Amino acid sequence: MLEIKNISKTFNLGTVNEKCALTDVSLTLNDGDFVTVIGGNGAGKSTMLNAVAGVWPVDNGAILIDGENVTGLPEYKRAKYLGRVFQDPMTGTSATMGIDENLALAARRGMHRTLRWGVTKKERESYMEKLKRLGLGLEDRMSVKVGLLSGGQRQALTLLMATLQKPKLLLLDEHTAALDPKTAAKVLSLSEEIIAENHLTALMVTHNMKDAIRHGNRLIMMKDGAIILDICGEEKQRLTVEDLLEKFSDVSGGDEFANDRMILG
Prior knowledge:
four-stranded antiparallel sheet
């Protein structure tokens, strides 16, 4: 469902601020894979995700989504393949519009717009059923402006919007980082449920080792713009934070992993 072939990205090339963010990165996700991506600050996690989304062009290599080469497509043309939930709960929704209106926008993504009623009765009933499953009481607040929701409610809504039209690939970019631990656990649980139910292919960037181990069927670790670990199957199921730290030390020539935020969550 996703093929990343030898992509590289350097920012501010030829200046004092030159930064090599990705170096010859290759990754293949099969249909239905839920891959968590872990790594310290500057490891290249979000750069890889943004490269897939088309936020900026890569210097070389290719990116294919469901067999379609999207390397040369701008961000807005790749949007039809992707669902995305951002780190900031304020991103991905329209704060001044109601919950039902936001869902209607997501449902009409890529469709031809006409002059008609914004949200039909049938659509409202459908949205209500989907919102009930979130267990946050949003089905009783359909006309409430999204800007009045809490961060967790907003992220859950964004997750629903991102998967309303089944995307080829779901990108989760540290989507629980700005939430308190209890709310983050709820949103992560909803993410896993929606991904499994809709048989989605997903790529989730996280700073939290425990979350990376607990969720998904595959884990990759990045360092200095490259993938240094790729763990899946039974090996991932048995994985602990201690195992992951030991593996990191082995593949990085004895380096210690000095990122408390990742280890402690």
